[in-house]
Design a protein that fits this description.
This is Xylosidase/arabinosidase. It is built from 12 helices and 14 strands. The N and C termini lie far apart (60 Å).
Length: 763
Amino acid sequence: MAALSSVDNHGRMLKRADPSTIQDKFMVGYQGWFTCAGDGPPLGPGHHGWLHWFNYPIPDGGRPNTDLWPDLSEYSPSELYPAPGLKYPNGEQVFLFSSRHPRTVQRHFHWMAQHGVDGAFLQRFAGQTDLEAGNEAIRNQRDEVGDRVREAAEKEGRVFAIMYDVSGVPPDRIQRVIEHDWMHLIHDKGVLDSPNYLREHGKAVVTFWGFGFADSGHDPAVVRAITTFVRNNTPGGAYIMAGTPAHWRTSVSDADTNPEFVKVWLEAFDAISPWTIGRYHNEETNNWFEDQKIKGDVELINERNRLAEQGHPNARHIDYIPVVFPGGSGHNLSEGKWKWNDAPRQGGRFLWRQLYNVRRHGVRTIYGAMWDEYDEGTAYLPVVPHKSQLPVSKTHKFMALDEDGYDLPSDWYMRVCCFAAESLRGERTITETFPEKELRDYWSSHPRYEEGISRLPFDDECGKQNQAADQRAEGPPPPYNFDTEGVRASAPIPPPSTRPISSSSSTISSGSSSWQPPPINPSSRPTSSGPGSSSQSLNLLVDDFSRQSISDGKAARFGAPPLHPNHPAASRSVPPEPWSQWPPSQWGARPPPPPRPTYTPSYLPAAPPPPLRPRPSASSGGSQFGDDDRARPQPPSQHQTYASASSPPFPQLPPNQPYPPEAPYQGYSYSPGPSSPPPNAGYYSQAAPPGALSYQAGPPYGGYGAPPPPRPGSYPYPGQAPAGRPSPSSNPLEYATSMVNRGEVQLKNLANAGTKFWNKRTK
């Protein structure tokens, strides 16, 4: 795409990822789940706006959910939001990014392109898409993030595909939820209309993660029915990938003991991707896992593929897509239940050992978990290099890249991703020796996207006109690879020690470079709908994502979205109803689809909708969280940006309803064990404490994959109201009673707000 095509000092051009095949690609998971107060409409009245960075604001007794701290040095000011209660050692305010901001999402995909990562599996949590369970608000927000991912992938020449996480949804409802949402994505959101949606042999790639885990209660017949529905109702067909338990082949440990699931994996899916986070934590245990698990998996799949080539009935070709991760730590997320730095990164050696062990088996696709997973410490995105750059807190600690004693640049793990991608394209061999020197010299041999090398297309009006001329002559996108091109390369540049950062002082005029943006598909990006005045158009041009790449990290705040009136940074007057048009027209984003008033649920849910469940790690009966530490009610606060005296905190759970148990990550024994342990021997055997939510059927909570379920008063998802709330038509008397009770709660909140205001004034 025009935003990212550049020439390095060897005359090589970085091309777009090929959306026509999943083969020979390094893909990453993309959560896109971080939100901040003031970044857009909240999930509901009274919601404080923070998702995943904090359970709720620290000044109100909240806590951070991350150990790793992101490096924010390259984000522009309009992308950053103040984090209440956190300061740097020099007293400066701490800021964080939001996954709702289009510039931020494009920046993340920009880094994918810079480092040769082909694209992302966008995580879509099935429980959050269940409208019949009252989850419209969070479903709409996930749709919004999906729009930003599509736009970023198209602009940055990356591919994307949907990966459903089915954990936490009752087994008897999962089929209905998936079928409804997949049709919503195809017909309402038009995800398959994107030229950058990943396909294999013309079939859209879609992944279902979480079926067949121990104690999940899934029926193999239902899983088959879901895959059949998706194949029959996806235009052009579907290439379906299974995110399976690590022990899928032997039906032990984290896998359902029903042997029928092995047949399901081999007969109903096109690819198998075993979930390995938490199954090993250092090079030694990874070597054991490769010998005992990966080797046997590949042998079985190769044998099945030979049968498929011979025309054997029920045999289909299957791809094996292993999962690798850079390390992990979820201490803050688990409130200290999980070990600090439980899977040390070892300066990249842990990740490199995984890459070496999977590449030696000839795999053609690798799945890196996860690009933006700061919560549990598996993120590849930039992390601050040194402890001195971390926020200070009396109650929580944070982690920098020097935790293991290595002095590394913040983009170190994205560099390792690039080497992995190059090996899949046949440009590099992954050897057993960790290439530390080559990684430190990374920018001497890889494309750099500074203005000194390539002029970014939104820098001037001429660039926009050149793009428009090129749009008419675009053909299909070429394969993603490095090729020697007949273009003039810039002068050699000495290798920097860290990722290059564009600087306004280094800007070169448009006439100083012979490079021109590659052609763009005009239908691949949203149409700007900005006002027509020249002064306004100039500002819109700078921030319009239909014409630009990523701006300088110190760029002015052009076209920033309007702040909520209560946002701490909103010191000047704010137009009424700032979210009346969302997303803002300045973003140049696709408008959301119109509401569908004709939708009526066909049944009332019997239980509250499931919260986002973490992907299970291997836990051998470790102690579960049984302390039932409910969040205490909090008085209104200046940090609860959207709190309202006329509405209760959003939403509330019954006071007698405990939060679900969670299994600590460190309960798993990492020492090599027998290759075939007896079924469920001491594994997930501990019963849930009395009162656990009945709708939480599924794999136990674990260390890595997603945060623990929300507690009352933290960041619950919409629809987590008491089960079976009466309606005026079904039960008028109970409905009237519930409305009276809600009114009492609102009056109490109003009284509390008044008391707090009076106390503050009379001090």
